[in-house]
Amino acid sequence: MDLEGKVALVTGAGGGIGKGIVRALAEAGADVVLADLNKDAADRAAEGVSTGGAETLAVEADVTCPSSVADMVDAALSWGGQIDILVNNAGVEIIRPIFEISESDWDATLDVNLKGAWLCCQAVAEAMVEAGTGGRLINIGSILAQTPARGEPHYAASKAGILMLTKSLALDLATHGITVNAVGPGVVKNGMSSRGCLSDPKMADEVAGKIPLGRVGRPGDVGDAVVFLASERASYITGVMLYVDGGLMLATPWD
């Protein structure tokens, strides 16, 4: 799954899953633009990647702001000359009892997780269409797109939205040679799960015991799925969410 000569743009690149995605893309040969609201985190992620010859650029970006997204895309194009792969990984997860979820919690979750992905897809897809060379749009969803958990109706709604956004864009962009797919992680160590169900070691063991493959996910598991969808091996796949959950969705109830 060689990505040499490709330029990838990854949002939320400074987080745990983001770093796993960046590392996997770089190891496959892609040059990577690391975008994050926290520029220092993007810089650290870029420094920590063993690229094996791949180049990296860290940029600050707010995916909820159209002008910031435009600046991010312009920076990536100026640096790499093209964008072949977009990975919408930026996201927030706020877990609260249902009657304590505020309007601001709802708005922040939908703004980052869904609107942010849409703004980035729209801007990058336009550049891809202008270039005329096709491309790959990859959205990071969640198993909660289909299997809800307690205390996260806003997060589940945002990820279900990602699933339908992925399908809709896949239909619209197919004639331009652009595939649009999603990766749906389950419970991932060093991802947002580490602040929730994995924050307590005993609870983490209990969660792992409910996963058919016997362990929680790693950022690299998500990264490997992204590389596959970005590669020519997936050239005839579009409009799907590839779940990377160790079989967790098969276990009911898992929460």
Which features does this protein show?
single chain, 7-stranded parallel beta sheet, 255 residues, Rossmann fold, alpha/beta, 7 helices, 43% helix, globular
Calculate Rg over CA atoms. 17 Å
Count of the domains: 1
Biggest β-sheet: strands ordered side by side in the sheet: 3-2-1-4-5-6-7
CATH topology: Rossmann fold
Helix and strand string, N-terminal first? Answer: EHEHEHEHEHEHHE
Tell me the CATH superfamily: NAD(P)-binding Rossmann-like Domain
- CATH architecture descriptor: 3-Layer(aba) Sandwich
Give the uncertain stretches in residue-range form. none
Shape: globular
User: What's the rounded overall pLDDT mean?
Assistant: 93
Number of strand elements = 7
The proportion of residues forming helix, as a percent range, comes to 40-55%
The largest pleated sheet is described as:
7 strands, parallel
Strand content: 5-15%
Structural class: alpha/beta
Structural commentary:
This protein is of the alpha/beta class. The chain has a single domain (7-244), classed as NAD(P)-binding Rossmann-like Domain (Rossmann fold, 3-Layer(aba) Sandwich). Helix content is 43%, strand content 15%. A 7-stranded parallel beta sheet has the order 3-2-1-4-5-6-7, with helices on both faces.
Compile the SSE list and pairings.
Blueprint: E1 7-11, H1 16-27, E2 31-36, H2 39-48, E3 56-60, H3 66-80, E4 85-88, H4 103-131, E5 135-140, H5 153-173, E6 178-185, H6 201-210, H7 219-230, E7 241-244
Parallel strand pairs: 1-2, 1-4, 2-3, 4-5, 5-6, 6-7
Helix pairs in contact: 1-7, 3-4, 4-5
